[in-house]
From TrEMBL:
Classification via InterPro entries: ArsR-like_HTH, HTH_ArsR_DNA-bd_dom, WH-like_DNA-bd_sf, WH_DNA-bd_sf
Annotated SMART domains: HTH_ARSR (SM00418)
UniProt cross-references to Gene3D superfamilies, sorted A to Z: Winged helix-like DNA-binding domain superfamily/Winged helix DNA-binding domain
Composition bias type Basic and acidic residues, residue spans: 126-148
Record protein name field: Helix-turn-helix domain-containing protein
Pfam families xrefs: HTH_20 (PF12840)
Region (Disordered): 125-151
Lineage: Bacteria, Bacillati, Actinomycetota, Actinomycetes, Micrococcales
Domain HTH arsR-type: start-end pairs: 13-102
Length: 236
């Protein structure tokens, strides 16, 4: 007789309380919802809700549904929570995104050239894309609209992507960002040079896309358990 399986970890332990709150709200609706509808329900910004929803899609907890429209207009994207049992029942498909990430990180680390620089470029491209999704006006080629608090915007966006972050100003031209929760942690411990270079590039791409007068001067990986420090400095 098979021994009972242990209960899976609570979603709040998987990816933080904010994202777990979005998932719980979507499950409570028992049907599809847009990012704007969930944002209104939770009292947050639609772009913040969308970042969490996209991360939940990547993790397999949520699926997207494109709205069928019979009138002119851009179809809206709806999100639906996956049943707790889907894909997790005995004999069901086993998914391992961590395994895929480890394979890709290992491959990138052995490619010709500078693996860290290639990882930075990959992260930078994703960061620019994340900024475009936060401000859809940029998708049409619009100029970046500088935010008066670009360091705060960086921290908010990182947190929405699963990097729990805290900003500490260190003078008029410098700031420190403490990242205390990393969605790449398990892979980063095995491939720190590649994975942390992706993280740095992601921050650089976000700052570039919003026209920030800041640059990432340094990234100190794993100064403590699940704790990295990014040093920001005013460009020029």
């Amino acid at each position: 007789m098979d021994s009972p399986r242990p209960d899976p970890p609570d979603e709040g332990e998987r990816f933080g309380p904010s994202r777990a709150r979005v998932l719980d709200a979507l499950r409570d609706r028992a049907g599809p919802a847009t990012a704007a509808e969930l944002a209104a329900q939770l009292g947050t910004h639609p772009n913040t809700a969308r970042f969490h929803l996209e991360a939940l899609c990547a993790a397999g907890f949520v699926v997207r549904q494109r709205e069928d429209r019979i009138v002119p207009g851009r179809p809206r994207t709806h999100y639906v929570a996956v049943s707790r049992g889907d894909g997790r029942r005995r004999g069901g498909p086993q998914r391992s995104y961590r395994l895929l990430a480890e394979i890709l990180a290992a491959h990138l680390g052995t490619t010709a050239g500078d693996p860290s620089e290639a990882a930075v470029q990959a992260g930078r491209a994703f960061g620019r894309d994340a900024a475009s999704r936060r401000d859809p006006g940029r998708e049409a080629g619009g100029d970046p609209r500088p935010d008066p608090d670009t360091a705060g915007l960086l921290v908010e966006t990182l947190s929405g992507l699963g990097f729990a972050s805290q900003l500490t100003p260190e003078g008029p031209d410098r700031a420190r960002v403490d990242v205390t929760s990393c969605p790449f942690l398990e892979v980063a411990t095995q491939h720190v040079d590649v994975v942390c270079a992706v993280h740095r590039g992601l921050m650089e791409g976000l700052l570039e896309a919003v026209g920030a007068p800041l640059r990432v001067a340094a990234l100190e990986p794993l100064v403590g358990p699940s704790h990295c420090v990014a040093r920001l400095q005013r460009a020029g």
